[in-house]
Design brief:
CATH class of the largest domain: Alpha Beta
Structural class: alpha/beta
CATH topology of the largest domain: Rossmann fold
CATH architecture of the largest domain: 3-Layer(aba) Sandwich
Number of strands: 21
CATH superfamily of the largest domain: P-loop containing nucleotide triphosphate hydrolases
Shape: globular
Distance between the termini: 69 Å
Number of domains: 4
Strand order of the largest sheet: 5-6-4-7-8-3-9
Radius of gyration: 27 Å
Strand content: 5-15%
């Protein structure tokens, strides 16, 4: 061992030929393998301590790379040209299995290639756990030399709650959490070895962040500007006090315009300080509003304390040992080690049911955190059981406090009782029913069916009006039909910086009494502070209609009678995904004279969630996959958004250097955050068409593309996803 085929030594100066090594460092020396094993074990144990599994995490770390002690493993480490295939993960998986530790077996087997499915005992090939367990590791693949350097504990303590009830969902979640601890520990120590380490986990304490928040909101609490602001301040004060309450599951039911964003942050920071929790994770429904929330938090808490994570960039898992360049790409993947994290529901929940290393890496940082689920009513019905199950498990066994934050609280109590019966759901807001009366600022009027041209004609009759439609195509059609003076278009096909610039112009024109007619998709409904005297909303779910109503008479300067939300239908067939929501809304509108009341909202969600039985809440029967430990099958089935999207970065004068780094694969967390402001997400079929037409440079393997035909993007309208659709010139 330790020699080339010609007998020449493989080791560097100062290293013994019998030393066991791993990563090649910038100075030309190697990191000792024992050092890497011990470092990863210590880190994995530290991470797992958050959920009572420190000893288990430590042992799993020691097991993960024992396969590199084989002769072939060392040849591969010292000589990148060595062609022998090395499967270093199977050795640790086999040892874990012998120790009757299936959790570690899964984690070690998948720490490069992703969590495997179990498979069956006849598997002698492929990527299943059984296939790895059946591998014969002899000759050059014999790893037994590990015994000369490290000692692996024969017994470890598992969390007491894990053995108390062997529920399959619980075991699967624990496996992913242990896997997360191992993967993050492995990446971090590798990063230190091959790059000298990067600052991770920096930022101020929750105590200091709470001080900053209190200073920011003090004027609001001491001297509210008007009666509406006084009501918002009362909600804020209650949230600050509510943070002192015990850990668990909470709801925050506040009508649109009630200041949910800052109030929920106030609860979270107060709660984190009270209970010694590590971070706040803010989960938003759409990528279109993540930057808006991040900007608010940056202003209050400081940019250095806030991490936004929604990038689609994804490095494929690799079974083989990676090059330093490949590692550099991987290490840019986010591990949520900031005091405040803002992410999307897609990132959060798909990571919880993922198998890939890049997605699972961050999971352990959810433990002992406060997680705010903004606009909780937007969780998709076909996966609702999976989402509720995950929240319940995290609250019960991983020290998470969850806050379901929404103006239209969905009827989830029944599901939580079914899936997490010991949890008690508590409301933070004072008198939610009374708040709905206090914040009722609009009236509703049912309209008929309109073509895009007819709708544009009705909108042109108003000086200031917002129209929200269900599809990007219809938004473009209505926009084109409006008089050019004072018309604006908002869509997710605009990069965030252009969207925000457009919103600033819109707000200024509204304040100055200028003509302002805006056509938008639903992105404007959540987290966008605009105040129109009149709103038109295409028929959709009741929660969406009430969110749209929050953009009408937002500051209460006009009477409800003169602040009308017009609910209309568009000509043609509605999107299939919205049929059930529209039907439920239609029935509630027929039954209730006032639809912006708590009873009407409860009736809507009861119709939407329970009309088709429990099976409709786990449409793909994924919970059955969880019981069979089919991690990859589950990951393939669980998608919050049916149509996968791909990020397209739009070059401009300000990001040329960043785009060049992206092309070179020089990823970093800071780079991806900056470029997020110059990105749009498109559906996969749209992306393929753009690549085929030569409009986008394809980097789909890494999860993104780069716009190379500038005329395809217009700041006022966004990215055209169809070549020759005539929208480019508008």
């Amino acid at each position: 061992m330790g020699r080339r085929g010609d007998g020449s030594c493989l080791h560097k100066e100062g290293e013994n030929e019998m030393d066991y090594v791993t990563h090649l460092k910038p100075d030309g020396t190697y990191q000792p393998l024992r050092e890497h094993e011990e470092n990863v074990a210590a880190l994995a144990g530290e991470f797992a301590a958050a959920f009572g599994a420190q000893e288990h995490g430590y042992r799993t770390g020691l097991l993960h790379d024992i396969g590199k002690y084989s002769d072939n493993g060392q040849k591969r480490q010292r000589d990148p040209a060595h062609t022998a295939k090395v499967d270093h993960a199977s050795a640790g998986a086999q040892m874990a299995w012998q120790m009757r530790d299936p959790f570690a077996a899964y984690a070690v087997a998948g720490h490069h290639g992703g969590l495997p499915d179990m498979g069956d005992k006849t598997n002698d090939g492929g990527g299943t756990l059984c296939a790895r367990l059946n591998k014969r590791l002899t000759g050059g693949n014999d790893p037994s030399a590990w015994k000369t350097e490290i000692e692996i504990p024969a017994k470890v303590r598992f969390p007491a709650w894990l053995a108390a009830e062997k529920d399959a969902r619980r075991l699967a979640m624990y496996t992913r959490m242990l896997f997360s601890c191992l993967v993050d520990a492995d990446y971090l120590d590798t990063e230190t070895a091959i790059q000298g380490g990067q600052p991770r986990g920096e930022g101020e304490t929750p105590e200091r962040l709470l001080e900053k928040l209190n200073a920011h909101v003090a004027p609001w609490l001491e001297a509210p500007a008007n009666d509406l602001c006084a009501k918002r301040s009362a909600i804020l004060a209650r949230c600050l006090r509510g943070g002192e309450d015990e850990r668990g599951l909470y709801t925050l039911t506040v009508p649109t315009g009630g200041g949910k964003t800052i109030s929920s942050l106030a609860f979270a920071l107060s709660h984190a300080v009270k209970h010694g929790l590590r971070r706040v994770i803010y989960v938003v429904p759409y990528t279109s509003i993540i930057l808006q929330n991040t900007d608010v938090f940056d202003k209050v808490l400081g940019e250095e304390n806030v991490l936004e994570h929604h990038s689609q960039i994804e490095i494929p898992d690799d079974e083989e040992e990676e090059t330093p360049e490949a590692y550099r790409k991987r290490l840019a993947c986010e591990n949520w080690d900031a005091p405040v994290v803002v992410t999307t529901a897609v990132q959060f929940f798909e990571s919880l049911y993922a198998a890939k290393t890049s997605k699972c890496r961050k999971l352990h940082n959810i433990a002992n955190s406060v997680v705010i689920f903004d606009e909780a009513q937007t969780l998709p019905v076909p996966l609702l059981m999976l989402c509720v199950s995950a929240i319940g498990e995290l609250v019960q066994h991983y020290g998470m406090t969850a806050v379901l934050c929404t103006a239209t609280q969905p009827a989830l109590g029944k599901l939580f009782k079914q899936l997490a019966p010991t949890l008690v759901q508590r409301e933070i807001a004072p008198d939610p029913d009374g708040l709905f009366d206090d914040f009722r600022r609009v009236s509703f009027q049912r309209e008929g069916v309109f073509t895009p041209e007819e709708l544009a004609g009705r909108l042109a009759e108003a000086e200031q009006v917002l129209c929200i439609v269900n599809t990007r195509k219809r938004a473009q059609q209505v926009y084109e039909g409006l008089p050019e003076e004072g018309r604006f278009h908002l869509s997710t096909l605009m990069i965030p910086t252009d969207r925000e610039e457009t919103l600033n112009v819109i707000r200024a024109r509204l304040r100055n009494g200028q003509v302002c007619r805006v056509v938008s998709t639903s992105l404007v409904e959540a987290g966008v502070d605009v105040d129109f005297p009149s709103v038109w909303r295409e028929l959709a779910g009741l929660d969406s209609i009430l969110q749209a109503a929050g953009r009408c008479n937002r500051e209460g300067k006009r009477s409800a009678a003169e602040s009308v939300v017009h609910v209309f239908e568009a000509e043609g067939t509605p999107p299939h995904s919205m049929i059930q929501q529209r039907e439920a809304t239609t029935k509630v509108m027929a039954e209730f004279e006032e639809i912006n009341t708590r009873p009407a909202i409860r009736a809507y969600f009861n119709r939407l969630l329970w009309v088709n039985g429990d099976d409709a809440l786990d449409e793909k029967q994924i919970l059955n996959s969880e019981r069979a430990c089919t991690f990859r099958k589950t990951a393939e089935a669980f998608h919050l958004i049916d149509a996968d999207t791909c990020t397209v970065y739009v070059p401009n004068e300000g990001n040329a250097e960043d785009i060049a780094q992206l092309r070179a694969g020089l990823y970093s967390r800071a780079l991806i955050r900056r470029l997020g402001r110059s990105s749009v997400n498109v559906h996969q079929n749209e992306y393929k068409n753009l690549v085929y037409a030569g409009i986008v440079e394809d980097h789909q393997e890494d999860g993104f593309g780069i716009l190379i035909q500038p005329d395809a993007y217009k700041p006022k309208c966004g990215l055209s996803t169809e070549a020759g659709d005539g929208f480019l010139s508008k």
